[in-house]
């Protein structure tokens, strides 16, 4: 059942159209990703869902209610949420807890227990983000909105943060996640809306997005024995064969790898240095957004 329903959302800033008719529905318990290039309208969309901005047109419902009446349901971690440098972890948790009737302390579960007396300014990037997640969850929300949670983190801290997001979902929280990272979307999200210039250009599971792109596959190998290239060209899965000094690159579709390896096996030829390149979510994203590559910032 959908817990977030966005229907034909529009938002402009002066002459700038930031969101141009976005509709989506997020099911309870889902991790739903919003992916797109800079300025695509992602933050504006989630800020409207969070009740922090007023749409110009369209409707948004969270658990059937207007987002502005959903303080008890929503936990929000925003893109550049910065706390004062000197505030201690414990003090920040206490301050945020005071806003809610039934606060929940996530510091233990998020590995912050030993940093409770540390000042915000002295925390590492990963610890700051864990604190931001703890603060977003303090009100025991049914929906957490996480905007570029892992931007600026090193790869290990990013992975640690992903496990935390999975733990939060396991605890029953629905997550709306804005991200620039393909790997993050692929690892975490049940479904992803790819946004470009204020519109959704595709909405699907990560593997569904990949399969939409009519991507070619490439199989590269060095045959252990000489092989007539026309045999490969005769396979209906194959569209092209290149020989680069004995290193063959076979391009095609369908079950290309199986077709090529079966042919080799019949001739008792071994594929040495075998490599397979397949369409990735990155390729799908580039195709869907017309060439904007998601950034690693
Ligand atoms: N307060 C504002 N006033 C004027 N224009 C704004 C404002 N906030 C956002 N914009 C513009 O609206 C467009 C959408 O911005 P938004 O922040 O929603 O995009 P985004 O997809 O989240 O981008 P990013 O990945 O860079 O955070 C951008 O062109 C941005 O410059």
Automatic annotation (TrEMBL):
<dbReference type="GO" id="GO:0046677">
    <property type="term" value="P:response to antibiotic"/>
</dbReference>
<dbReference type="InterPro" id="IPR050763">
    <property type="entry name" value="ABC_transporter_ATP-binding"/>
</dbReference>
<feature type="domain" description="ABC transporter">
    <location>
        <begin position="4"/>
        <end position="222"/>
    </location>
</feature>
<keyword id="KW-0547">Nucleotide-binding</keyword>
<dbReference type="Pfam" id="PF00005">
    <property type="entry name" value="ABC_tran"/>
</dbReference>
<dbReference type="InterPro" id="IPR003439">
    <property type="entry name" value="ABC_transporter-like_ATP-bd"/>
</dbReference>
<dbReference type="InterPro" id="IPR017871">
    <property type="entry name" value="ABC_transporter-like_CS"/>
</dbReference>
<keyword id="KW-0813">Transport</keyword>
<protein>
    <submittedName>
        <fullName>ABC transporter ATP-binding protein</fullName>
    </submittedName>
</protein>
<dbReference type="InterPro" id="IPR003593">
    <property type="entry name" value="AAA+_ATPase"/>
</dbReference>
<keyword id="KW-0046">Antibiotic resistance</keyword>
<dbReference type="InterPro" id="IPR027417">
    <property type="entry name" value="P-loop_NTPase"/>
</dbReference>
<dbReference type="GO" id="GO:0016887">
    <property type="term" value="F:ATP hydrolysis activity"/>
</dbReference>
<keyword id="KW-0067">ATP-binding</keyword>
<dbReference type="GO" id="GO:0005524">
    <property type="term" value="F:ATP binding"/>
</dbReference>
<dbReference type="GO" id="GO:0005886">
    <property type="term" value="C:plasma membrane"/>
</dbReference>
